[in-house]
Write a structure and sequence with these properties.
- The protein is α/β, with parallel strands linked by helices.
- It has seven helices and five strands.
- It has helices at residues 15-29, 50-57, 67-77, 95-104, 132-137, 140-153, 174-192, and strands at 2-7, 33-38, 81-87, 119-127, 157-165.
- Strands 2-1-3-4-5 form a five-stranded parallel β-sheet, sandwiched between helices.
- 32% of the residues are buried.
Length: 197
């Protein structure tokens, strides 16, 4: 299975980067392959241009899409699965990943007369500073899932899962106690979520 990873974190000095690496090791160890877009390293342009806005808001496929969008769409259509790895900022993905959706999920690709293939699997791996119980009790986990699984992925994938690496704020003692547990979970997801090749 070919996995397309969309990775979004502004720093290499992060737990999220370690989780990404553990997850990739799991993919490779299970005999699968991957391609990755590192949005910060790519300096992916996330602001929708007026031309892009008018194209989508008028439900038009003209004018044509920019080359950076076409490249991301080609990665999606050549993959069997998609994975998003990012830190949680204010109950949401980083602005750069939100902008990726704004531009890549274009009319005629992700909605309307879609040319986006229905992917076999999708996985969300996000790092949160708050503990999972807090996210649940405040209703924030449901909000995060609704946006990513219910809106952005919706019927574009056959099977999806949402994993939170919780308690990872640098200000919390849980960061140290959860570090290895969360990295093991990242590896296991990479190893078990996709069929062994």
């Amino acid at each position: 299975m070919k996995v397309f990873i969309v990775y979004c974190h502004p720093s290499e000095d992060s737990f999220t980067r370690n989780a990404r690496d553990a997850f990739i090791k799991g993919i490779v160890d299970s005999g699968n392959e991957y391609v990755m877009s590192d949005l910060y390293k790519m300096n992916f342009k996330t602001d929708m241009s007026e031309k892009e806005y008018l194209r989508d808001s008028n439900y038009s496929t003209e004018p044509g899409l920019e080359s950076d969008i076409l490249a991301e769409q080609a990665k999606i259509n050549s993959a069997d699965a998609i994975v998003f790895i990012y830190p949680v900022f204010w109950t949401e993905a980083p602005a750069k990943l939100v902008g990726w959706f704004d531009r890549v999920w274009s009319y005629g690709f992700a909605y309307g007369n879609k040319t986006m293939k229905v992917l076999e699997k999708a996985l969300i791996l996000c790092t949160a500073g708050k503990n999972l119980d807090d996210l649940k009790n405040l209703g924030l986990l449901d909000c995060m899932k609704k946006v990513m699984l219910g809106d952005r992925l919706f019927n574009r994938v056959k099977e999806s899962d949402f994993i939170v690496f919780d308690g990872m704020s640098k200000a919390r003692d849980s960061r140290k106690t959860n570090w290895d547990k969360n990295l093991n979970m990242a590896y296991r997801k990479g190893y078990t979520f996709f069929p062994h090749q």
